[in-house]
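Example: Xanthine dehydrogenase molybdopterin binding subunit.
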Amino acid sequence: MSRLSERPVTAVVGEARPHESAALHVTGRALYTDDIALRTPYLLHAHPVCAPHAHAMITRLDPKPAYDVPGVVRVLTADDVPGINDAGTKHDEPLFPTEVMFHGQAVAWVLGESLEAARIGATAVEVDYEPLPSILTVVEAIEQESFQGAQPRLERGDVAAGLAGSTHVFEGEIDFAGQEHFYLETHASLATVDDDGQVFIQSSTQHPTETQEIVAHVLGIASHQVTVQCLRMGGGFGGKEMQPHGFAAVAALGARLTGRPVRVRLTRQQDMTMSGKRHGFHATWKVGFDDDGLLQALEATLTSDGGWSLDLSEPVLSRALCHVDNAYWIPHVRVDGRIARTHKTSQTAFRGFGGPQGMLVIEDILGRAAPVLGVPAHELRRRNFYVEGQATPYGQPVRHPDRLDRAWQQVLESSDFERRREEIARANAENPHRKRGLAITPVKFGISFNFTSFNQAGALVHVYKDGSVLINHGGTEMGQGLHTKMLQVAATALGLPIERVRLAPTRTDKVPNTSATAASSGADLNGAAVKNACEQIIARLAPVRAQLGVATTWEELVRTAYHERIQLWAAGFYKTEGLSWDAVAARGEPFKYFAYGVAAAEVSVDGFTGAYEVDRVDIVHDVGDSLSPLVDIGQIEGGFVQGVGWLTLEDLRWDVSDGPGRGRLTTPSASTYKLPSLSEMPADLRVTLLDRATEDGAVYGSKAVGEPPLMLAFSVREALREAVAAFRPPGESVELASPATPEAVFWAIEGGRD
Ligand code: MTE
Ligand code: MOS
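Written out as structure tokens, the predicted fold is:
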């Protein structure tokens, strides 16, 4: 076992503890960025001037009339930008555009003494537009060859030969939707300047370092003049990996120009209208099976809907390509990926980061093919699992496939799968109007950033003279429990009760050059860095402990060490070893390990309306040796339900008519965009952590948990397909739209009736 994964006998990691801020969250005492803003004197409020066109040139922009509005202090336009007028890293995202690229895009910002003054001021800014033709759907983009970024190809073996040698060949296509993050806290930034013109930004950001870099380049100053702090986020889900930078830059620019604190906080409607979402995809595919239902070859083209600019679309696409196999061995593979440019928000990271989209393609294929192959879907899936010694299409050996087998077997048993399947078949035969469906699906998800350089992290650990400990690390807290885990790691590494350790907010002047808290790797990377810092301190204390004897208290040890002039603080660092990734060739071993999980879901569907309920879900998920079991179970439940929302409820719609509203998001609020809530929770949800699952390559034997459980939700989509099939003659392939809303389920049932 590696030093990194070894766990002492008495360890605070592994204890079931509540989230470190749980009490603050539920009593409303937890502070978020905008709470701090509203406690700040002399505050200015920013409001955007939003374009009413999906695509247009700005022919005139006159801020003057806004200054007649009482309370308006300053209008920010492109002329005010001292540095680079761009909010992204690809230089395709002008902060103040001359060409409008989506409906609702901000073309200027107004600062006011009150938000109301800024809002009225924004309506007074005069803007003339020359509307241009717009592209809204992926299908339109494909027809017009509107693409952006790289077009990678993932290839192994000889697809033509594989298809030729197959006894069953199927072709199909699917167009599936994206997803709104709907974090409870919308985008928020607060910027202040000091006497030296340095900028301090509090931002709801998953990537403080990149927020710092973008603010610096917009202002034309160096990174050491910009400090970004993230206290906590009320959810990020990937939506705050890149999207906060522009809002932070607006606040920072306003603060530099006025000398006053500036607050940007979007309303829900602005947030949904202006910020990027999960990529929807369009996929065409051809697949071959042999007589036993074993996959022989897959040929596919995946086109993601990137929206107006690239931001994270390229890495999201890479991860989609790396997950089209999900848990299945496919000897011959060729998958082409491309990114459509459309006149919509810039689609971005969202829990799973393309992985769910890649997996949806293969799970859809298996679900559609099973009845035609005459093999039950769960049996078809099981037969195609990876076995030891096989590698993914990009060349990474699949380590520990036996864990997937174990999780699968455990779910089959604990869910009483076979007996319920028979019982459901009997019940369905008797009930023509209400059918039940039961399905089981696997998840295999690669952990690490594909881009090798991002797999590094830092930490700063201070031991004060009284023996109390303050830790800082490069990760951000968005509700996922990272800080809870880091406190447990530090307490374990130092051998202290957790009460002796406190955690300070994430700041770029404490730990520099950090990666985004993303790719589920927050605990792996920062945990190893925290552990490293603690171990440096423990090593320095060892000679003092030898002098004083093992019975000495921590306080005495620290006091003595101080007087002996021993450094009581340390900076920790970690980089994940053994990774490689060639993005152009789409080959390498980009992942430290795979996280596995299995879910079985049962649904019941009403044949008259398509309305359905999720009646029971059984999950076994692999988190290695959990750092914090309560947190991990919360992540599994939350991820699963968020996935169910994406696949079955959440329905983003844009106005695709040729009318004046073309390009407008028509579902910009909670009243028009249906999210899963308590009433959509499965009536019976059973989550178990896979046992005997120590991960040798990660901190204290744990595994990442943030994203993989989202993809357990395929079980619900496949259960709906089973239920729809029960309304139709046996042996028919069932096509299901995504999201499989009650309406879509109704049409799937109808499709079989005529
Ligand atoms: N859980 C909560 N409560 N809120 C969030 O915003 N984001 C998810 C996941 N779980 C999120 C969450 C996403 S997209 C990722 S990548 C991981 O948490 C990031 O945190 P980690 O790396 O510490 O797991
Ligand atoms: Mo998560 S989508 O990697 O922020």
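The pocket of dioxothiomolybdenum(VI) ion (ligand 2) is lined by residues 206, 238, 241, 349-351, 353, 518-519, 707 (CB under 6 Å).
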